[in-house]
Design goal:
The protein is α/β, with parallel strands linked by helices. The protein has 3 domains: about 80 residues, Udp-n-acetylmuramoylalanyl-d-glutamate--2,6- Diaminopimelate Ligase, Chain: A, domain 1; about 210 residues, Hexapeptide repeat proteins (UDP N-Acetylglucosamine Acyltransferase, domain 1, 3 Solenoid), CATH 2.160.10.10; about 30 residues. The chain has a 12-stranded mixed beta sheet. The protein contains 4 helices and 38 strands.
Length: about 350
């Protein structure tokens, strides 16, 4: 495809040879003649010297005499737009497989793709252009929006609501029982989980993630939030819009998370606290109390990022401090020995 068309798709400005034809896309290290690649992180700018791609999507301030460049405000986003426009396979409309099981009293939209061995329960409503891959289970009285993609072996339990343009990857479970028990005389009595889950528009949920239904009310995932693989979200959690939840995060029950929050990999959060808008928690942070708006936290227990950095710097010097303490101990012992030899009459 002509490089000029790619520049338009990337919403960038073309610098270099306007006659180039792009045949494929590749990483900056692997790219060869005919390929398009991108550079978004300035610390890797030296890779341009050995880059063999025919064109590179870069930031506004990048210069290179020998490469054709497409300059954009956000190279990563520009590259994503190009991939969507030219390289993503268009969705097929396959209709409803004869090997799918669909109970009565369902409402099914138009242009659906329902693969074999899908189950859709009684009373469920499905919007237009939605895809159910093999092995998908959707329980009764669910609401599934339009342009939704449910990848193989996704499980949607009863009464769950899923908005438009939601993507749920293989093996995710939405609406399983919350982990609630009342203990009496060393016996754990299960508390019925009578609530549900609401997934708002434009959410993406990774493979193997589990989102528990509420005890009462709803567990809520806000519009545009993106959740990675293997995340556990407990009952009655509420996550706002546009948040990023990275792999292996564990969120205990009844946590409230604001808008545009970022939780790094393996973050753990205790129950019944508030994480306000714009908070960032770095990987493996253990959050044990509410975090105010815009704060960045790290470590366990989670603390302000700058404080954590100072603490880590101190710990890194631990061996040095131990050697210093040993030296001081030797000096004190030497002084005490000399004083004891002089005796009190020489004091």
């Amino acid at each position: 495809m002509p490089i000029a068309e790619i520049a338009i798709a990337a919403e960038g400005e073309l610098f270099g040879n306007p006659e180039i034809i792009i045949r494929n896309i590749a990483g900056i290290k692997e790219a060869s003649e005919g390929d398009l690649t991108f550079l978004s992180n300035p610390k890797y700018i030296s890779l341009l010297e050995s880059c063999k791609a025919s064109a590179v999507i870069v930031g506004k301030n990048v210069e290179h005499r020998n490469l054709t460049l497409i300059k954009t405000q956000n190279p990563y986003l520009g590259f994503a737009k190009v991939m969507k426009a030219f390289f993503v396979t268009p969705r097929e409309i396959l209709g409803i497989s004869k090997e799918a099981v669909i109970e009565g009293e369902t409402s099914l939209g138009n242009e659906l793709s329902i693969y074999p061995h899908t189950f859709i329960g009684r009373g469920t409503r499905v919007g237009d252009r939605t895809t159910f891959y093999p092995g998908v289970y959707v329980g009764r009285n669910c609401s599934i929006g339009s342009d939704v993609i449910l990848y193989p072996n996704t499980t949607i339990m009863n009464d769950v609501t899923i908005g438009d343009r939601v993507i749920i990857h293989a093996g995710a479970v939405i609406g399983s029982d919350g982990f609630g028990f009342a203990t009496d005389n060393r016996i754990h009595h299960k508390i019925p989980q009578l609530g549900s889950v609401v997934i708002q528009d434009d959410v993406e949920i990774g493979a193997g993630t589990t989102i528990d239904r509420a005890t009462l009310g709803n567990t809520i995932i806000g519009k545009g939030t993106k959740i990675d693989n293997l995340v556990q979200i407990g009952h009655n959690v509420s996550i706002g819009e546009g948040s990023i939840i990275v792999a292996q995060v564990g969120i205990s029950g009844s946590v409230t998370i604001g808008n545009y929050v970022t939780l790094g990999g393996k973050v753990g959060i205790v129950g019944h606290i508030h994480i306000e808008d714009g908070v960032t928690a770095t990987a493996k942070a253990g959050i044990t109390k509410s975090i105010p708006k815009g704060e960045t936290v790290a470590g366990f227990p989670a603390k302000k990022f700058r404080h954590w950095l100072k603490q880590m710097a101190f710990l890194d010097r631990g061996p040095e401090f131990m050697d210093l303490l040993k030296e001081l101990k030797k000096r004190i012992e030497t002084i005490e020995s000399l004083l004891s030899k002089r005796g009190p009459e020489n004091g």
